[in-house]
Amino acid sequence: MKEIETMSKAEWQVMRIIWTLGQATSKEVIDILERKTDWKSATIKTLIVRLQKKNFLKAEETKRPYVYKPLIDEDLAIHQSVNNLFDNLCCMRKGQAIKDLVQNSEISQSDISDIVGALNAKAQTAPEEVECNCLEANLS
Amino acid sequence: MKEIETMSKAEWQVMRIIWTLGQATSKEVIDILERKTDWKSATIKTLIVRLQKKNFLKAEETKRPYVYKPLIDEDLAIHQSVNNLFDNLCCMRKGQAIKDLVQNSEISQSDISDIVGALNAKAQTAPEEVECNCLEANLS
DNA sequence: ACATTTTGTTTACGGTTGTAAACTAAGAAT
DNA sequence: ATTCTTAGTTTACAACCGTAAACAAAATGT
């Protein structure tokens, strides 16, 4: 009884290639991943099949070789994954987790300005302290 | 051949309680999680056992009922999980992912300042653009 | 047309996770 | 001491995941 499909680590690698190329044949995906990883082509085929079953990819089957296209937007997928993970965290600690991410990620000047902008907006209504609700019955 | 143990979603819930309390008996954990979720006590016992096998928890077995204590620091666990997820992402998109997180998380005033501070430091050396390496053979 | 190569489909297998019952041992109550 | 209750251990089972071989169908080369 799973409500929302999630993407496994290996599946992410496949999707990234297809998102970046816009679309791709299995050969393209396999060539790239055989350079990035030590996966066998059979493994990569399995991942493509699973991504289709999960409705993250579709195959254009009008002619061979099939062309695979994403069915989910990359930014949406990122949004869902990241927020899904943050749901696990104590809300009191999310701020520091974000700071840690900032320090450990390469970020462009324009993204930095963007994030600062978002933070300034946030500061208008942000609380002095965020309460930990790890022991509360309450959802989230 | 798994190098680093990961914490599953359900296991996170257990750890959060024990981190917040500092230590806890199984009864305490079960009482709290039975209010937060619809898990049976048997399920929660299983999670506690698995967390011990993964070395995230240890039981103080000197007297009954056992007292369970965390073997991993909460901030370290968060750091590992979050960075592990971010490793899946196209590096070009991490900035926007962080912005999205900022917008969707409750963050305290002091954490906001902290993050802004980190961003300002980052801006000293940040590149104009971050290159996508989704198709590169290169690690990461 | 037939052999070979490429690409897609099916099957496989061990480990993890969500979910939990059953069993056992140790405390508590009478 | 015997029974009830609580807490810890063992077993279970289906879905998902990493990993891949085997098989089938289509395209390509000769």
Textual characterization of the structure:
2 copies of one chain form a homodimer. Chain A has 140 residues and is mainly alpha-helical. Chain A has 2 domains: 7-68, Winged helix-like DNA-binding domain superfamily/Winged helix DNA-binding domain (Arc Repressor Mutant, subunit A); 89-126. Helices cover 54% and strands 6% of the residues of chain A. Chain A has 6 helices and 2 strands. Chain A has a two-stranded antiparallel sheet with strand order 1-2. The mean pLDDT of chain A is 95. The interface between A and B is large, with 63 and 63 residues. Chain A binds a DNA duplex (30 and 30 nucleotides) through helix 1 and helix 3.
Topology:
The structure is a homodimer of 140-residue chains.
Chain A: H1 9-21, H2 26-36, H3 41-53, E1 57-60, E2 67-70, H4 74-86, H5 94-104, H6 109-123
Antiparallel strand pairs in A: 1-2
The structure holds a DNA duplex (30 and 30 nucleotides).
Which sheet architecture does the biggest sheet of chain A show?
2 strands, antiparallel
Tell me the name of the CATH homologous superfamily of the largest domain in chain A. Winged helix-like DNA-binding domain superfamily/Winged helix DNA-binding domain
The CATH architecture assignment of the largest domain in chain A turns out to be Orthogonal Bundle
Overall strand count of chain A = 2
CATH class wording of the largest domain in chain A = Mainly Alpha
Total count of domains of chain A: 2
- Please state the oligomeric state of the protein chains shown: homodimer
User: How many separate helices of chain A?
Assistant: 6
Order of helices and strands of chain A: HHHEEHHH
Portion in beta strands of chain A: 5-15%
Widest beta sheet: strand line-up of chain A:
1-2
| Overall pLDDT level of chain A | 95
Give the largest chain-chain interface (CB within 8 Å): A-B, 63 and 63 residues
Low-confidence stretches of chain A: none
* Helix content class of chain A: 40-55%
**CATH fold name of the largest domain in chain A:** Arc Repressor Mutant, subunit A
Cα end-to-end separation of chain A: 20 Å
Radius of gyration of chain A: 19 Å
